[in-house]
Amino acid sequence: MVDMDKIVSLCKRRGFIFQSSEIYGGLGSAWDYGPLGVELKNNVKRLWWRDNVYLRDDMVGLDSAITMHPKVWEASGHLASFADPFTGCTACGRHYRADHLAEAIWSSKWFESLKRRLANEDNAALALQKWAAGDGKKLAPNLALVQRPEVILSLWKDKRSGYRFVQSEFGELLDGIASAPDGTPHNPCPNCGGQMSEPQPASLMLETFLGPVQETATKTYLRPETAQGIFVNFDNVLQASRKKLPFGIAQIGKSFRNEITPGNFTFRTREFEQMEIEFFCMPGTDEEWHQRWVDERFAWYEKYGIQKENIRLREHEKDELAFYAKRCVDVEYLFPMGWSELEGIANRTDYDLKQHSHFSGRALEYFDEDSKQKLIPYVIEPSAGADRSTLSFLVDAYREEEVRGEKRVVLNFHPELAPVKIAVLPLLKKNERIVETARKLTAELRKRWYTVYDDTASIGRLYRRQDEVGTPFCVTVDVQTVGDEKAPADEKVTIRDRNTMQQVRVALSSVEIVIAKLMDGHWDEIYRDSDWAG
Ligand code: GAP
Predict the structure, then answer these.
(1) For residues 440-449, average pLDDT
(2) Of 29, 60, 151, 267, most Cβ neighbours within 10 A?
(3) pTM: predicted TM-score of the whole model, two decimal places
């Protein structure tokens, strides 16, 4: 698995993703999509919309506002309970979600280094002493063990000579190495080892004021999910579209959360984009629909190239479920930092429609023609992140290979996801006929696919450049194409496949039709069939 630093560096170098406001020192956790990144993310969103809206009879779309009536958030429960307890370091000021702290300590740089040291020494006290005087000083300068080694180690020696650390004694080890001067143990900071504060609740809602004068303006919130915009429009969409149950409403849009621990590149940010579906169905059919959506959504990631071994489903435990949810299954991806959520698919029952009916006084019901009765539909919610999906497609596509003794970096994107579909490369930029033919071909192909023209380097280098950004096909125009004094024009071009690096010679007049086949995954067929040469 590629490490995240390589992905971040490739993204910056090749214009996929940049740090937000970089010239001012950057804004933590906010990222800007560059020329190739915006294409990739737009492709993710377009394919999601195509597959979930256009290719189905039972779905319609919506684009609701980011700011909504403040009562929406009372009804949804976000104002009362959308808060993760957080804890801050009294030494370096870093904040962490209290429920993620143990995990953050366990995988912190300093604890990793301490674990290695403990594994290599039979005498734990000696291992701690050496670590505190060496790596500990650099990695966890504010840890009690590093700051007051004599005091901490004297207690340690008394209690635990001959001790060997095992994972189940994680808490005990922390108590032994992180304590206040009066001996009271505390949680150490994953960043510097300092003392963490008592957990406090923090609202994840970002407040904003609508109106020019803050005192009289309406306080509202930037939506923390797009879902509520769908629920409050349930009746409008039902009346306007005349849909019958079961049917769903899809929406793609920005959401905002004051996350305590944003990080891992675009994985967790405070501003992000969601791709959400609320699928309304008859109570009693909800369990079956839920399973269908779990299967469909899992298959969607595989369809666009995510490798089987890097994706899995995780059933939520009963104690993880929101109180109103009947069942929830996460699609997880093996990111460089470990298995993490890509999408959640929840059975939300009739909770949301009931809540909004109650708070707004408007009945959000469905009239069932068969039973001649009104009912409140149940809701299945497949909720995905556009940024997380984009990141998973990037990570999954990354390959490093050796070709004739040289490193080749390839982004092995599914052709429909690739930011640039075709690169037209003139072999000689000083040959007017080659340039003219290549320009003309580029203009034709552009009508259908995002095509670039590049003549700024040697052909080998141009291929590498396109491989690194995942362009599936390069088309080269050369002397044979246009002819010279030695031989007449053959009016053929070379199409090269990014993955196999195989090449086929194709008549200029067939390029468009051949590329259309290649986009559909028919490289082998074209490669075998010489007819395409015209
Ligand atoms: N309406 C349900 C809902 O919002 P969620 O699990 O909180 O559920 C759904 O979010 C998806 O949105 C996640 O699986 C993830 O892909 C994306 N997401 C959530 N918080 C995010 C964040 N801070 N940064 C990036 N993506 C996020």
Answers:
(1) 98
(2) 267
(3) 0.86
